[in-house]
Design brief:
Blueprint: H1 4-9, H2 18-24, E1 27-28, H3 33-38, E2 43-44, E3 48-53, H4 59-69, E4 79-84, H5 91-103, E5 118-122, H6 126-133, E6 143-149, H7 152-156, H8 163-187, E7 190-195, E8 197-199, E9 214-216, E10 219-223, H9 226-230, E11 235-245, E12 255-265, E13 275-281, E14 284-288
Parallel strand pairs: 3-7, 3-11, 4-5, 4-6, 6-7
Antiparallel strand pairs: 1-2, 8-10, 9-10, 11-12, 12-13, 13-14
Amino acid sequence: MITEEEIAKQQLPAVTTAADLLLLAQKLPTGCPNLDRFLAGGIPCRSITELVGENGAGKTQLCLQLLLHSQLPPSPSASAFYISSEPPLPLRRLQQLADSFLLRLPPSSRPSTPLDNIFLHSVQTADDLLSLLLRLDPILPRLRLLVIDSIAALFRSEFETSSTDLVRRSNLFFRIAGKLKAQASRFGFAVVVANQVGDVIGEETGGGGGCRPLVTSGRRVCPALGLSWANCVNTRLFLSRSQECDFRSSDLNQTRTRRRMQVVFAPHLPSDGSSCEITIDGHGVHGLLDSGL
């Protein structure tokens, strides 16, 4: 029979409080109610969300929109950090979105100077990125969003295909992702990473981790950096684009670009490949849920 003294010496099992669960469930709004609905509330905090797609699919546009909307209540004094690896910095587009952002908000909810709360920094290599992350602690308590645009550019030109380089590349993946997750978990902000795609050759799968191939502009593609990097991110969203006839025009040769956001994998969303059509205009990125999933 176990005595009371023995029971007292036993270690208690890990206990999760209701407050802990609420913190884990926090989301960063995208700035579009339809996209927030599609993503079950927005971009998860305390984890890494990857936006993957070809050039022109809308990755940077959504990143810039998130920088602005990260300052809305309940964190009106929050800041955001945008790390760019591909110059030039999109300052003109950010200013355009900021002007529209302020006009669409009621006066009581407007951040006074939203661009003053967005930090911008350029990095050239993966080592530069890791070094920067190690120096960010002083500003992290106010941070609500950290964006890296894009991660692939830091690795594609720096590493060869030798076994030594591949091992070093994977080690950097894990060190960078581990640091991002530790900082995001401690301070409660969201991490969004843009990634590029490459064409699929043969019978490879395209989504990473054994997912179905991804299609954009009529091409079968897969996210850059392979399975090692796929294992570093918590959520992967695929942004695609296609050209089709514009039946709204009297010119039968007129085409228009259609874009979609597809869930590749996410712990908080259905893994059925559901998607949402998106549009991009002068005011930002918008979801069209009624267009069919």
